[in-house]
Amino acid sequence: MAVFVRKKKNKSGVISIQVIDKSSGKYRLVKTIGSSAADAEINSLFEQGQSYINKHKGQVEIDFQNADDLFTKFIEGIKQVNVVGSERLLGKIFDEIGFNRIADELFRKLVIARLCFPASKLKTTEYLRQYQSYFVDEDKVYRYLDKLHKTQKQVVQQISYEHTRKILDNNISIVFYDVTTLYFEIENEDELRKTGFSKEGKHQHPQIVLGLLVSVDGYPLAYDIFEGNKFEGHTMLPIIDTFKTKYQLAQLVIIADSGLLSGDNITELETKKYEYILGARIKNESAKIKQQILAFKFKNGQSHIIHKDASARLIISYSEARAKKDKANRERGLQKLEKQIRKGKLTKANINNKGYNKYLKMKGDVVIEIDYEKFNSDKAWDGLKGYITNTALSKEEIIDNYNHLWKIEKAFRIAKTDLKIRPVYHQLRRRIEAHICIAFVAYKIYKELERQLKKHQSKLSPEKAIEIAKTIYCIKAIKPISNEVIYQTLILNEEQKYLTELFNM
C-alpha cells in the first residue's frame, strides 16, 4: 500500500506529523502522531511515524466508506472465469505421455473434452466456449477431423506404444485382444455401417466392429474398425500382424476370449508361430473330450489338463463361486421361460440356441415346452471354465494370464460409459475413424491417470480426480487502480488442494 509520513504545517505555525494512505488514489489520514514547533521534536515525531508504518505493515486499516466501491470495481474488473483444473491435470498427463508431439491445439482440446464432457461435436464446441473461453465452430471441428484421419491415427498409436513400453520396462510379450460393436442411429446401411450381431442388443441398428489390443494392466496399444457384419474372429489377426510387424516384435502371446475361437483362427495363429491362450467353448468339444471333462473330480480352485493334439492343450478349471453363479443364471433363465410359456408368448421363432432358449423344444406341431432333462444335464457343467493354449506355461500361469482379460472388457466399458464413445453420430468413415482416434487417446490418458493415482497410493478413482479437477477455476481480472491484469486460481476446498498438491499442478 502507498503509506507514508507527512509533515503538515498548520496556520499557527505548528507542524503536524501524520501517517497518510494513498492506496485508493485519494489521500486518507490514518493516524496523527503529534505536532510541535521545535525541530528536534518534529524529527522525533517523524521517526515515530515511520516506526508506526513499519509496525503495522500488512495490517490494513480499511476505509469502510470506500471498501464497497473498491469491491464493486474489482468485480467489474473480472473479465473471464475458466475451468483450469482439467487442463492442469489431464493436459499434464497428455504431455507426459508424449501426445504433445501432435502440435494441434484443437486435438488437445477435443481429447481433454472427451474425458471431461463427452458429447457430440456441437455440444463440445459449446463446452469449450463456456468453460474454456476457447472459440471454435462446429465446421472447423469437422474439417479438423478430416485432417486427423489422414495424419494422426498411426502417430497416436506409436506414442501410446512407446509410453506403454516404457512403463512396462520394455516388456510387451503378452497382449490381449477383444472386440465390441458401436451402433448408429440410422436406418440404412453403407459400406462400413452394417447390421450384424450386436454386443449391445442393438441388432436393428447398423454398426461397426471395433477391435482393441491392450497390454498387461490394460494399457491400449492398437485398434482398428471393421464392417458391422464382419465375424469378430476375422478381425484379430490383421491387427496383431500389423502390430507385430510395425514394432518388430520377435514373439507374442495372444490372449482372447472364446468369442474369437475358431478352427481357422487357431490354425493361422500356429502357422504364424504365435503363442495363444484362448477361452474354450468346452460344451462344443468332441464327445470324447466332453466325456473326459465330466469324468474329472474337481475341488474348488482345482484344474486339469487334456492334450488335444501335439501342440494344443485344454485346461479345465473349477470354481465354487462360478458354479453358484452359473446355477443362479440357469435358474433365472428357466423362470423367465416358464413365465413366457404361461403367458403364451413363445413361438417356433424362439426355438434356437440363443441364451436359455436352448432349453425349449417343440411338442407336436404347435406346443412349445421346456426340456427339463437338458436343463438338469447342464448342472454338470456349472463352475467349469476352459482354456486352450499352445504355450509351455503352467496351467496356473495360463489361468492367471487369461484372468487379466477383464481389463480389456473394462476398457470397453469405460469407453462406452465414461467416454461415451457411442452412439456415434458421424456418417463419413474418415470422421468415424477420427472419433475413435480421439477416444483411444482419451482412454490412454485415463489409464495413465489411474496408474499415477495408484503410484501415489491415492484412494481417488480417475473419475473422482477428473470431477475435482473440473471444479478448479481461474479468474482473469483487471485491478481497479493500476489496471494491471491478474490471474488467480481458486482453490476453495480440501479436495482441490489435495489434488493440486498430489499432481503438482
Describe this structure in words.
43% of the residues lie in helices and 20% in strands. The chain has 505 residues and is of the alpha+beta class. Among the domains are: 3-61; 172-281 and 391-425, Nucleotidyltransferase, domain 5 (2-Layer Sandwich). The strands form four sheets. Strands 7-6-5-8-9-14-11-10 form an eight-stranded mixed β-sheet, sandwiched between helices. A three-stranded antiparallel β-sheet has the order 1-2-3, covered by helices on one side. Strand 1 (3-9) and strand 2 form a beta hairpin. The two termini are 31 Å apart. The model has no long low-confidence stretch (mean pLDDT 85).
Instruction: Just give the CATH class of the domain at 172-281 and 391-425.
Output: Alpha Beta
Instruction: Classify the beta-strand content into a percent band.
Output: 15-25%
What is the radius of gyration? Answer: 35 Å
Average pLDDT across residues?
A: 85
Point out poorly predicted stretches.
none
Helix content: 40-55%
- Total strands: the figure is 16
| CATH second-level architecture of the domain at 172-281 and 391-425 | 2-Layer Sandwich
CATH topology annotation of the domain at 172-281 and 391-425: Nucleotidyltransferase, domain 5
